Amino acid sequence: MVTIQIYEDNAALRHGLEELLSLSDEFIVTGSFDNCLQVESATRDNPPDIILMDIDMPGMTGIEAVKKIRVFNQKVHILMLTVFDDNTHILDAICAGASGYILKKNVSEKLVPAIREVLAEGASLSPAVAKMIISSMQQTPVRHNYNFTKRELEILNLLCKGNSYKMIASELNIAFETVRSYIKKLYEKLQVHSATEAVIKAINEKLI
After folding, report:
1. Into which CATH architecture does domain 2-122 fall?
2. What is the CA radius of gyration of the chain?
3. Is the pTM of this model over 0.90?
4. Between 1.10.10.10, 3.40.50.1580, 1.10.3720.10, 3.40.50.720, what CATH number should domain 133-204 receive?
5. By CB neighbour count within 10 A (0-12 exposed, 13-18 middle, 19+ buried), where does 187 fall?
6. Tens digit of pLDDT for each residue in 107-154?
């Protein structure tokens, strides 16, 4: 069973998310909260597989909560729930360490596929979000020698363009598991834990 914690201050939406997830025997909600003031203790004591985090929360924003979680847990997948379809909020969430985001207006049809995707691939950036990150990274790069192979660079480039693992496998005509193996090696070399972090680092350091 995939364990999930929900942080959403709108009671109707929070209960709706719980009911939606209960329809599948894949998921179990282990915590449901109307604020994220206790997010550190909740995620330390009972770390879930997935966190659904509202961006606009009382007392502490979802983005601030993500930053706190990432101090001690780099592995949990965090999907942001937002009514904001604008670059600033989404980019801030991704840079804080979010794995992806779902617009609340699309949550009924997008939630379960998004959870399955992030579990399968770690994170998947849409081309629009990848473009946001690229446009935001304008500072002078700090160059490092990561000793990437030609194939690793090809895969990193495709990842930065917003391609999913399946799309990369198809583009390069290699197996899905081979892509996962290459990306695991990329993470090790870059010293990151997600596709989001890898893309941000690659763009910031002009690696592609």
Report:
1. 3-Layer(aba) Sandwich (3.40)
2. 17
3. no
4. 1.10.10.10
5. middle
6. 888 899 889 888 887 665 555 566 666 566 545 455 577 889 999 999
Backbone angles phi, psi at 83, to 5 degrees: -90, -10
- 75, with CB counted inside 10 A (0-12, 13-18, 19+), is exposed
Q: Where are the domains of the chain?
A: 2-122, 133-204
Angstrom distance (rounded) from CA 110 to CA 69: 24
What's the confidence (pLDDT) of residue 140?
A: 47
For the stretch 96-120, what's the b/e string if a residue is b when 16 or more beta carbons lie within 10 angstroms of its beta carbon?
A: bbbbbbbebeebeebbbebbebbee
Indicate if the pLDDT at residue 179 is higher than 80. Answer: yes
**Are 108 and 101 contacting, i.e. CB atoms less than 8 angstroms apart?**
no
Q: What are phi and psi of 205, to 5 degrees?
A: -100, 10
Tell me 93's DSSP state.
Answer: H
Q: Are 78 and 98 in contact (CB under 8 A)?
A: yes
Helices of type H across 59-125: 62-72, 87-96, 107-121
Same topology, domains 2-122 and 133-204? Answer is no
